[in-house]
Amino acid sequence: MLAQAHLGAYFKQLRLDQNLSRQALAKRLNFSEKTLQRIEAGIVDLKVTQCFALVNYFALTPQNLEPAVAELTPQKVFAKINRTNDYLALAEQFQLLAKTRRLPWLADAALVCQALAAQNTGDQQQAIESAQRFAQHFLQRNHRSELCFHLLTKVAPLLPMTTLTQLAASGIFDEAIQSPALINDALIFQWCWLQQAIANQKLTDLTLTCQMVLQALNAIQTPESQILTRFCKVIQRRLNNQPQHAQRQLSALENAITLLFPEGKARWVITRLQATDHHLMQRLACYRPYRSTAMN
Is 67 within the bounds of a domain? Predict the structure, then answer.
């Protein structure tokens, strides 16, 4: 839990400094004693209302809170997002800390958690809206931290094709490949972009997307980037109505993946590629009867 042990211990010390029993403080705050005990022990996520109640009772300022969250870093924030199952509670914590510490990247993290929480509850529209708000914040930044790129990969599958294309056109690939730590983020984004382009109604968008992804990947030399490069070429063969060439390329790619990765990971990657290729063939089967010639 993000700084939860530090905050809990800090509130407990403040209570003891005022010679208050846990029972007495719980009663004044309208908490149950068990809830306060769990908060102080750092074993539950603080709700915003609970944290505000404690902050107000002890008349804390951002400077007072600083020792309790001194170890907060972007890396720990992202690690917490990857570990949690309760995105809503985490979003509330980030919102509160963003206000008390005036850190914009915590507000970004809260927005991403809101999107993921909405997705988990099946509120797809809210998830997309929150993801798009984060994407707009991302585009408006003159300097984007590694955390911004990491957060973008979390919501990329929720973004519509128009937003993904806007992000790609902003030069984020050029930025990402400057840092080895961000190459994987660039690949995840490109993969999501390709999948959205396949699902999109305009296959001409997929042609352009493949071209832009291939251009971006020229500067990256990793096994994962080579897989994505070769798969883009499979897609191009499909678009140009060359199914035999596409299948041969896909089979060769699957063989290479089998050699590159351990069995479990290789099977997972191949399954994803096969599913995406199958989806593309279904789309083309619906599209081509209305076309007199193959796409160029």
Answer: no
Per-residue pLDDT tens digits for 53-68: 888 888 776 556 655 5
Q: Which of 98, 86, 7, 96 is nearest to 48 (CA)?
A: 96
Quickly state the pLDDT bin for 160 (edges 50, 70, 90). Answer: very high
Establish how many alpha carbons lie within 13 A of residue 90's alpha carbon, considering only the half-sphere containing its beta carbon: 26
Angstrom distance (rounded) from CA 135 to CA 15: 42
Q: Give CA–CA dist 17/12, Å, rounded.
A: 9
Is position 186 within any domain?
A: yes
Domain span at 294: 160-296
For residue 241, which of 287, 192, 201 has the smallest C-alpha distance? Answer: 287
The Cα 19–Cα 250 span in angstroms is 71
Q: Is the pTM of this model over 0.90?
A: no
- DSSP H/E element including 249: helix 243-260
Please tell me the total count of domains within the chain.
1
Q: Is residue 194 part of a domain?
A: yes
Listed in sequence order, the residues at least 6 apart from 114 whose beta carbon sits closer than 8 Å to its beta carbon are 87, 88, 91, 126, 130
CA–CA gap between residue 16 and residue 36 (Å, rounded): 13
